[in-house]
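Protocol step 4 of 6: structure prediction from sequence.
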Amino acid sequence: MTEEIKRQLQRFFPSETFTVEALETALEKGEIFTAKEKILPYLQTALFDDKALEVEVDGMPRVYFSRLKDDLPDLIEDEIDGRIVFSQPDYDPGEYLTDMTHLVTLPLEPGLGNLHLRYSRFIVLRMFTKAFAVEMATTFEELGKVQEIPVLRLTYPVLARIVRNTREFRAKVIESLNFTVSLELGENAKEFLAAPVDISIRGMSFAVSKQDQRNIKINESYGMKLYLDDELRVSVGGTVKHLSRIRKKSGIEYVCGIEFDLPSKTTAAVIESLVAMIQRAHLKELADKSAWSGIDLIA
């Protein structure tokens, strides 16, 4: 069994070395697992919490982004009083995942990743929790559609592993939270409001429109004001580290990642307090979703 797992690890993570001793320790600690039932809660969390997933194809350094998609059955077509009416069949959200046979994701962003994925040998999906990352090993099956929405169909992961210290903790900003950021693009430019995606004590990311993202430059510094419940909590500068296209269920989202330029311990303390409040709101939402779905979602 250990030799088979080692073979799979070498296939999906070819740049790494796995000794038998290290593998046995990871298996004993539950940080590498192949049981489908153990992988399932992470997939359910990714779907219900609408997590952006990092996607690595054939071990290439370029990272793409996607999200899990529910595999909804086709609409039922009926004729009522001479009119064609479509209705949703009986289906519980996320039900297909419990079959543990396959995954459905939205197309990758940037779009070039979809071509690479179609001819790939292996794929790694990476999901972040508050304490660690989970990497799941899968392969491409076929292109498809779910109720006319283009999707990618992947095999159910053959193994997963927990990876710690991959990045700093980021609190997800839930949609119901009245948290906004105002960005100052320059002395003569108007401020514009953006919707935060997540935040840490060192930086944050936020969604911007296609038009606004053209005015943001990587490695440039900008001033920001962070508002919670329409109250200014802190003004802080920051340097743009990345601009990424990420696909959502409703379309394409442009996400800007900024590293804070913290001028004082006071500013850092205010941001740390904001991170804690935003994380509590996210945890409450996850608890509510767990109660509603009957699934223990992972924070």
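Step 5 (inspection) to follow. The two ends are 30 Å apart (CA to CA).
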